[in-house]
Amino acid sequence: MKPVLEKLTTLEHQYSFVLQKDSYEYYPTPWHYHPEYELVLVTRSEGTRIIGDNIEPFKDGDLAFIGPNLPHVYKNSQQYFQGNPSLRAEAIVIHFRQDFLGRHFFQLPEMSHVVKLLENSQQGLKILGKTRQYIALGMKKMLTMSAGERLIHLLHLIEYLSRSREYRLLANPGYLQKHHNTEAYKMTKIYDYILSRFRQPINLEEISDIAGLTPPSFCRFFKSRTRKTFTQFLNEIRVGYACKLMSDESLNISNICFESGFNNLSNFNRQFKSIVHQSPLQYRKTIVSGT
């Protein structure tokens, strides 16, 4: 995809890294990338997170570590765009550059584990388990620290994370991205349209028109930038939403199928198992039992 280059000017003037607490009606940043590493903790929100070619739902407590120039977007669920004052999109975010502690700091022998972590972040990492809890608590504590304390604590959190194996790689290792800002607007329009309407039928002619392309040109354009066909991408969005609905025991599998945008149960079951590697019923039993 062709994301927007985001420039974080705060890094150039005041501090060696950025720590910020964000609060919005909905996350406003489009599909974008930047040269900084990013550690992002969702404290209050839900929706769909896309990092590289990985598509997953997110909710309160989601913690991800995103490497430099890896395109990503956090898109809130549709109810966040309806002016409901009880809904907020909140997060704690840290940005830092490779050389924020000096050009040669990470070449020190004591930093070998950290270097491996930074390499893995090129695919994006979802932080899990007790490590997620520890890092999340540490990020919250940093908000009340002095500038010097924050710097020391950030290095501690990075080193702690580098010693953990409680994370999952997100984007596929073959994901490559060439950034051309001239196409960012087109891809943002496509993303916004799909993510706001995936529960309804979307045909190829309709989405091609949004992109200003003929259907054959759109198919080539979309697959060359996402490494997925439009149908594959749409199914992943719908299945991700279905996974979120599975915890609502008032909905049966058939309800979830149609709520997620599928128009027949057999196709839903087939797509769900292909993407999640479990049937919908098996997945529901897993999350209900907590195993």
Description:
With 291 residues, the chain is of the alpha+beta class. The protein folds into two domains: 4-169, Jelly Rolls, CATH 2.60.120.280; 198-289, Arc Repressor Mutant, subunit A. 41% of the residues lie in helices and 18% in strands. The protein contains ten helices and eleven strands. It has helices at 112-120, 129-142, 147-162, 184-197, 204-211, 215-226, 230-245, 253-259, 265-276, 280-289, and strands spanning 4-5, 17-24, 32-33, 37-44, 47-51, 54-58, 63-66, 72-76, 89-96, 125-127, 167-169. It has a six-stranded antiparallel beta sheet, covered by helices on one side. Strands 6-5-8 form a three-stranded antiparallel beta sheet, with helices on one face. The protein has a two-stranded parallel sheet with strand order 1-3. Strand 5 and strand 6 (54-58) form a beta hairpin. Helix 2 (129-142) runs antiparallel to helix 3 and helix 5 (204-211) crosses helix 6. It is globular and about 55 Å long. The two termini are 36 Å apart.
